Structure formats: structure tokens, C-alpha cells
């Protein structure tokens, strides 16, 4: 949304999402609400939501080990106490979808677009306010998923390089932006120290995950190829998640016949956006666009991981020598960065295409009709490509109740003076 505004306004007139004209902000919120209900509407029916390998939580509480998600767990525990586990779980999903174990990763991805605007703000106009904004973004992502902190950190590093190279006075830019970047890193480290320190010490939830992750997990969670198109097209299409090869769930591509053609159309629109930043008011986006392209290329390479002989050696070396990288486990998490890049470049492409129509059509009626038709088609492309999520994932995930005996056992344990002594079998 902010990027499209930048295509139409000079640098001095850039606005953040919350500074948009009221009409545009209301329309954006209505659109986000519409998509959220289109996906999660069926999940609002009575019952708990169960995933492939996670149960619908009846109770929310703090884990026994220190982890990055403690603030979010505490918030969910309070919400669960107030409204019950069933409603609290659904509110978590709705909140994650509106912004954008697996639920927390979804929440982290929902924060990514906002985090990108904070990063861009700090790099474009270094200062105290923008530095704090970037730090807040990283802290929130860390609470939801430390894995995404690593991914966002790579994006931030690449964007810093591209913004530096775009400056005429590179050394002066580094002198001005460097201290504020250090401030952002320091604030992030201090606010996240409750999980970073245990992680470094090999303790806490994240430390336990890294300690138990070895080469076996690297192979078990490797991305998979498409039977017809191979590995790279599958990953570029945002598919290839390791569980696709297990038959545990229906792949999203099953809901998108001829997905390679739709993907090609989406990438074509993104390419038009990339070409558009080379001229006119779009030039101010060049450092951002170049950074996104570089970050996407790195993400694809790392996502290929050990599944491709060209990248296997590099990824095995990273896994062996960088402890934090080992904590990612499944390479498919890098698709989150690729999806973010698609969303930004596609938006720029849409703004470029719609901006070309008035320059090529004189009659107002024909021009308005062409813009309306083009807008509808452009909106339909990503909706169709991601339609596997619509209507409660087409019934793949739906609310259901626990067996009656489970509720009886729950009441029995709750009435026990020593419920922690129960033996599971």
C-alpha cells in the first residue's frame, strides 16, 4: 500500500499506512477484513481448530522453558482466561490473517510488510523515530518467530547495501545512517535479551531446538520437487514444503489448475513494476526494488538447500558453522521472504499498469472502463493463485469438538489436588 503511494508522489510527500487519506485507509481496512472473513469465516462456527500436527488448544498457558514467544503466550493465556480457549484460538488466527507452533509463524509473516516499511523508513530518513520503529518491528517478529528474525535480518542487510550503493556520497550516508542502525540493533537486542541470552547459552526452547537439530532433520525437512516441473519452478511458485511429499494434507496447487501460467502472469506484472522504477517518479524505489530482487534470489538458493546439488554444499556448510541457521530446520521457511517480495513488486506493477492506461486512452468513459476491468483482473490473479486458503481452506480445516471422554478426563484432572501427577498412556 505504501509502495503504491510512492509511485504517485515525490519523496517529500511519502506517507505511512496510518497517514493515508481517510478514504484510502478505510478501503484498505475493509479489504483486509473481507479477505480475512473469506478465509476464516467457516472457522467461526462452534468447535476447535485442529491442524495436521497440532491440536485445537482448549487452554492457553506459559511453557515450562524460556522462549521468545513468552509475551505472546502470556497475552494468549490472559485472553483464554477471559473468553475461553476456543474463542482465543480463533482470535489469534483472525488477527494473523488480518495483518497478513505454525500460528505464531503465520503471525510473524503478517508483521513482515509493516516491518519492511519501518526498515525502509530508517534507511531513507535515518533518525531516532525511524530507528525505534525498526527495532519495534524486529522485536515483534522475534516474539512471534525467531526464525523470521534471521530472514528479516538478511533482508535488512541487503537493503542497507543497496541504499548505500544508490547514494552519491556513500561514506557520508554511512556516517549518518550507521549510528541509528546500531541504535536499532541495540534496542532490539535489549528488548529480546530474555530469549537471546538463553539461546546463546544453549538453554530455553530455542536452545533446545538447536541442540536437538542435526543433519537428519536437515534431510527430513528438505523441500520437494514438483513431479512435472522439477524443484526450482516449484519453489518459485511458493510450493515445495517438505510435507507435500508425505500426503499429510492437500497441496495448495491442487486448487489452482494451470498454476504455472497464473504464476507467470503474476511475475510478468511484477517485472513491469521493476521496469517502471527505472523512470519517472518510480526511480526513488530503485534501491528498494533492487534489494528485494537480491534478497529473493538469496532466499531461493537457501530454500533449495540440500535438495539441489548446486546449493547442497553451501547449505550444509551454513548448517554446520552457524548455530542460528541450524535452528531454521526446514528450508521452506525462506518462502516467506519470497512471498513478501512478490507482494511488493506485484503492487508496484499494478500501480505502473494502471498509470499507463490514462496516457494511452483519451475518452474518459473508455479510460474508466479499462481501469475498472484491469483492476478486477489484477485483483483476481493473486486471489485465484491463493484460493486454496479461501472458505476455511475449502474445508480442509474445520472446527470440531473433542471426544466426550476428553471433557470428562479434563474435569477429573481439574478437580485433582495434584493434577501434574497424571500418567499418560
Give a written overview of the molecule.
There is one protein chain. The protein has 20 helices and two strands. Mean pLDDT is 79; it is low at 1-19. It is mainly alpha-helical and 425 residues long. The chain starts with a helix and ends in a 10-residue tail after the last helix. It has helices at residues 2-8, 22-40, 70-83, 85-99, 102-124, 128-144, 146-165, 170-191, 193-200, 204-211, 215-220, 231-236, 259-276, 286-304, 309-321, 323-326, 335-360, 364-385, 390-394, 404-415, and strands spanning 48-49, 399-400. The relative contact order is 0.11. A two-stranded antiparallel ribbon has the order 1-2. The protein is globular and about 80 Å long.
Features of the shown structure:
single chain; 425 residues; mainly alpha; two-stranded antiparallel sheet; disordered N terminus
Strand content: under 5%
Mean pLDDT: 79
Q: Helix and strand succession?
A: HHEHHHHHHHHHHHHHHHHHEH
Task: Summarize the main sheet.
Answer: 2 strands, antiparallel
- Report the uncertain regions: 1-19
Q: Which outline best applies?
A: globular
Q: How far is it from the N-terminal to the C-terminal residue, by CA?
A: 52 Å
- Counting DSSP H or I runs of 4 or more residues, the number of helices is 20
Helix content: 55-70%
Number of strands: 2
Content-based structural category: mainly alpha
Radius of gyration over C-alpha positions, nearest whole angstrom: 23 Å
Order of strands in the sheet with most strands: 1-2
Amino acid at each position: 500500500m505504501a509502495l503504491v503511494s510512492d509511485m504517485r508522489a515525490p519523496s517529500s510527500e511519502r506517507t505511512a499506512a496510518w497517514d493515508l487519506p481517510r478514504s484510502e485507509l478505510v478501503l484498505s481496512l475493509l479489504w483486509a477484513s473481507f479477505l480475512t472473513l473469506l478465509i476464516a469465516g467457516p472457522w467461526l462456527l462452534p468447535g476447535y481448530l485442529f491442524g495436521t500436527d497440532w491440536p485445537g488448544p482448549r487452554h492457553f498457558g506459559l511453557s515450562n522453558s524460556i522462549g521468545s514467544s513468552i509475551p505472546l503466550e502470556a497475552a494468549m493465556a490472559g485472553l483464554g482466561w477471559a473468553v475461553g480457549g476456543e474463542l482465543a484460538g480463533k482470535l489469534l488466527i483472525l488477527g494473523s490473517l488480518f495483518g497478513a507452533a505454525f500460528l505464531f509463524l503465520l503471525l510473524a509473516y503478517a508483521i513482515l510488510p509493516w516491518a519492511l516499511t519501518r526498515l525502509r523508513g530508517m534507511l531513507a530518513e535515518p533518525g531516532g523515530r525511524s530507528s525505534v520503529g525498526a527495532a519495534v518491528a524486529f522485536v515483534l517478529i522475534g516474539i512471534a518467530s525467531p526464525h523470521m528474525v534471521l530472514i528479516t535480518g538478511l533482508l535488512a542487510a541487503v537493503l542497507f547495501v543497496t541504499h548505500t550503493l544508490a547514494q552519491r556520497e556513500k561514506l557520508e550516508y554511512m556516517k549518518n545512517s550507521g549510528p541509528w542502525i546500531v541504535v536499532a540493533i541495540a534496542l532490539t537486542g535489549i528488548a529480546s535479551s530474555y530469549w537471546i541470552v538463553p539461546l546463546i547459552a544453549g538453554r530455553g526452547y530455542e536452545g533446545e531446538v538447536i541442540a536437538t537439530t542435526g543433519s537428519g532433520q536437515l534431510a527430513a525437512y528438505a523441500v520437494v520437487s514438483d513431479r512435472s516441473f522439477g524443484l526450482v519452478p516449484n519453489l518459485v511458485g511458493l510450493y515445495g514444503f517438505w510435507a507435500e511429499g508425505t500426503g499429510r494434507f492437500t497441496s495448495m496447487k491442487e486448487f489452482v489448475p494451470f498454476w504455472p501460467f497464473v504464476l507467470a502472469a503474476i511475475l510478468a506484472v511484477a517485472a513491469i513494476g521493476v521496469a517502471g522504477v527505472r523512470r519517472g517518479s518510480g526511480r526513488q524505489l530503485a534501491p528498494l526494488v533492487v534489494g528485494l530482487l537480491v534478497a529473493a534470489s538469496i532466499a531461493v538458493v537457501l530454500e533449495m538447500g540440500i535438495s539441489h546439488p548446486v546449493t547442497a554444499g553451501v547449505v550444509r556448510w551454513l548448517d554446520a558453522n552457524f548455530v542460528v541457521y541450524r535452528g531454521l530446520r526446514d528450508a521452506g521457511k525462506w518462502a516467506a521472504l519470497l512471498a513478501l517480495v512478490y507482494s511488493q513488486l506485484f503492487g508496484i506493477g499494478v500501480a505502473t499498469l494502471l498509470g499507463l492506461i490514462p496516457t494511452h486512452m483519451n475518452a474518459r468513459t473508455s479510460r474508466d472502463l479499462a481501469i475498472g476491468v484491469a483492476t478486477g483482473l489484477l485483483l483476481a490473479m493473486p486471489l485465484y493463485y491463493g484460493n486454496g486458503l479461501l472458505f476455511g481452506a475449502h474445508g480442509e480445516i474445520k472446527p470440531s469438538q473433542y471426544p466426550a471422554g476428553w471433557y470428562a478426563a479434563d474435569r477429573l484432572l481439574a478437580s485433582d489436588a495434584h493434577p501434574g501427577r497424571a500418567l499418560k498412556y
